[in-house]
């Protein structure tokens, strides 16, 4: 069968038919989010088993919201990002593609990027309206924005409040919280996504941290008309505070957590007592092993979201964060299920493989038109996976149509690897809860553990960990459980930059021949020598901090003594330094 390009005519015709059908239904008065409509839309795009595919209609136009200066963001230049038009070549990412992701190629100075959020507001020359940030209530602004847009959402969508909902588990609650039997299609969509930013008590907040969080809230929750909500999920490290034993203990811990006043109304606390209460069959709850358990419980107790991004404090979006996440979500939605896991194992390096459509063709050729994962990857411990069965027994019968238009249950931000083929991975033997006869189940890890998961997936993981004690390390949790359950996984081509971009050996260690060098459609084993960690997106790297310092015009010791010049990612003109549009991690303050 011919392989369509990612945005090819076949798919556009298909999506156009869906859109026309949606308008037809709307004209005849059917509620836009009623179950009847969801069934018909799904049935239009599929046949037989594929009636399980859920394709949701676009939401109505966003209603502008009020920002921290008391003005509508659509009318306030002081709340805006100030983009620059400079005559400089745009840096080509080492991995990923702005064009294929649908991401704007913007330039900004530090003032243009963070001026709206307090950058240099202590200086006399600050040329925006100043804000008393301690009087800002981001939770209130988010909720007023959602209320202004409430008519756009289904009834299942609710505003987020941080009242103490999360509870310790007890025997009486056991049956009422068992959710694993619910299938993927039985969750009523809310059309909202939570951006869960992880924090912890004792953290020393720097101005840069607050510029970042303010920008995240304004550019996602407020600019989207409530499609996103930012939540600050804070780890109370002192278990002796017993925050879930009484409302007073919880309130006292919240007061003592040293959380900036502007963020308190979006803060939710957790501690290890909570994890031990819900997951007694798993002995290790440290973040390196179970970083998603707090988010699982947040998804359980806060059902007003369809998806939950898990973010770290040391992330940065160098362009508009909301538009970036919209682009990532749209790409994942329009990606087919077929060979999606195989594609996650290969880097999209433009000068090696061309466009993302070219990468798809190369991966398809390496797999001879088939796929290693087609529907749930069955394991004995999960006899009833919640995902849909595939539309045909043989993946070669699918012309890259299954899953197109369907929101991904997992969006990863980096490549994935097959654990059984990765002898270098530190946690390859860490598996819990499995019988000796199945001590090495199929698993996939995607570092770092910054991913988006659907509520259906989070609750399926919660159920398996609570009842059976099934556990894999943090970087493997979401993609592995998704594969076991037959849920959709996507790795959009987000732009990364490599510090040593001219080092051919380094580039080849990451590329490793690509799909053309694969004997079976998967990427080969990890190299014996781990490539240098000079990446803008990785679990450990000093390069992002170096870029930020140069952009802020700060002097710090560079991570590479030979590289004291301006990082090539940045551009300089008339004494100003400009940064392109991409995301970075980690950026330590």
Structure write-up:
The protein is α/β, with parallel strands linked by helices. The protein has one domain (61-335, 408-499, 534-589). The chain is built from 18 helices and 13 strands. It has helices spanning 9-27, 35-45, 98-101, 110-114, 138-148, 207-222, 247-256, 272-278, 287-290, 293-301, 321-334, 340-344, 350-353, 356-366, 455-467, 474-485, 504-511, 543-551, and strands spanning 193-200, 228-235, 267-270, 307-312, 316-317, 410-412, 417-418, 444-445, 451-454, 489-490, 571-573, 576-578, 583-584. It has a 7-stranded mixed sheet with strand order 3-2-1-4-9-6-10, sandwiched between helices. The protein has a two-stranded antiparallel sheet with strand order 5-13. β2, α7 (247-256) and β3 (267-270) form a beta-alpha-beta unit. α1 runs antiparallel to α2 and α5 packs parallel to α6.
Topology, pairings included?
Blueprint: H1 9-27, H2 35-45, H3 98-101, H4 110-114, H5 138-148, E1 193-200, H6 207-222, E2 228-235, H7 247-256, E3 267-270, H8 272-278, H9 287-290, H10 293-301, E4 307-312, E5 316-317, H11 321-334, H12 340-344, H13 350-353, H14 356-366, E6 410-412, E7 417-418, E8 444-445, E9 451-454, H15 455-467, H16 474-485, E10 489-490, H17 504-511, H18 543-551, E11 571-573, E12 576-578, E13 583-584
Helix pairs in contact: 1-2, 5-6, 6-11, 10-15, 15-16
């Amino acid at each position: 069968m011919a392989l369509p390009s990612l945005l090819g005519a076949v798919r556009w015709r298909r999506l156009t038919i869906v859109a026309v059908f949606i308008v037809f239904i709307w004209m005849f008065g059917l509620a836009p989010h009623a179950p009847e409509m969801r069934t018909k839309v799904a049935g239009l795009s599929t046949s037989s088993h594929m009636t399980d595919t859920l394709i949701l209609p676009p939401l109505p136009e966003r209603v502008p919201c009020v920002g921290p200066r008391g003005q509508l963001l659509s009318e306030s230049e002081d709340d805006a990002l100030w983009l620059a038009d400079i005559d400089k070549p745009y840096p080509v990412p080492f991995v990923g593609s702005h064009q294929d992701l649908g991401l704007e190629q913007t330039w900004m100075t530090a003032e243009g990027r963070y001026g709206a959020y307090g950058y240099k507001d202590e200086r006399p020359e600050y040329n925006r309206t100043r804000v008393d940030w301690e009087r800002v209530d981001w939770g209130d602004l988010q909720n007023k924005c959602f209320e202004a847009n409430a008519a756009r959402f289904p009834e299942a969508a609710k505003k987020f409040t941080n009242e103490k909902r999360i509870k310790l588990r007890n025997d009486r609650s056991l049956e009422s919280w068992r959710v694993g039997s619910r299938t993927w299609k039985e969750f009523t969509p809310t059309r909202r996504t939570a951006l869960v930013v992880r924090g912890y008590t004792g953290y020393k907040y720097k101005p840069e941290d607050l510029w970042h969080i303010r920008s995240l809230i304004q550019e996602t929750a407020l600019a989207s008309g409530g499609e996103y909500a930012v939540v600050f999920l804070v780890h109370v490290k002192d278990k002796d505070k017993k925050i879930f034993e009484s409302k007073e203990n919880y309130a006292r811990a919240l007061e003592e957590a040293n959380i900036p006043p502007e963020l308190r109304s979006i803060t939710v606390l957790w501690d290890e007592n909570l994890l031990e209460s819900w997951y007694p069959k798993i002995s290790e709850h440290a973040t390196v092993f179970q970083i998603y358990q707090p988010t699982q419980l947040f998804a359980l107790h806060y059902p007003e979201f369809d998806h939950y991004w898990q973010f770290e404090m040391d992330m940065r979006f160098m362009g508009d964060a909301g538009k970036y996440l919209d682009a990532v979500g749209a790409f994942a939605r329009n990606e087919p299920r077929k060979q999606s896991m195989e594609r996650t194992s290969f880097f999209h390096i433009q000068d090696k493989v061309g466009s993302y459509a070219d990468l798809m063709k190369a991966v398809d050729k390496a797999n001879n038109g088939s796929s290693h994962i087609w529907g749930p990857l069955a394991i004995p411990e999960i006899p009833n996976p919640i995902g849909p069965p595939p539309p045909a027994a043989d993946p070669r019968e699918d012309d890259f149509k299954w899953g197109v238009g369907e929101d991904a249950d997992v969006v990863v931000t980096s490549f994935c690897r097959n654990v059984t083929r990765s002898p270098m991975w530190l946690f390859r033997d860490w598996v819990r809860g499995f019988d000796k006869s199945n001590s090495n189940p199929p698993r996939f890890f995607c570092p770092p553990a910054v991913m988006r998961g659907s509520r259906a997936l989070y609750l399926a993981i919660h159920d398996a960990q609570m009842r059976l004690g099934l556990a894999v390390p943090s970087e493997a949790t979401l993609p592995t459980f998704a594969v076991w359950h037959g849920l959709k996984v996507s790795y959009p081509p987000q732009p990364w930059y490599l510090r040593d971009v001219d080092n051919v050996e380094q580039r080849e260690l990451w590329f490793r021949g690509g799909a053309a060098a694969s004997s079976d459609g998967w990427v080969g084993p990890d190299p014996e020598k781990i490539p240098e960690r000079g990446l803008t997106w990785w679990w450990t790297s000093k390069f992002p901090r170096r870029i930020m310092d140069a952009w802020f015009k700060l002097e710090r010791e560079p991570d590479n003594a030979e590289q004291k010049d301006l990082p090539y990612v940045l551009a300089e003109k008339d004494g100003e330094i400009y940064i392109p549009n991409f995301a970075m991690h980690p950026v330590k303050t």
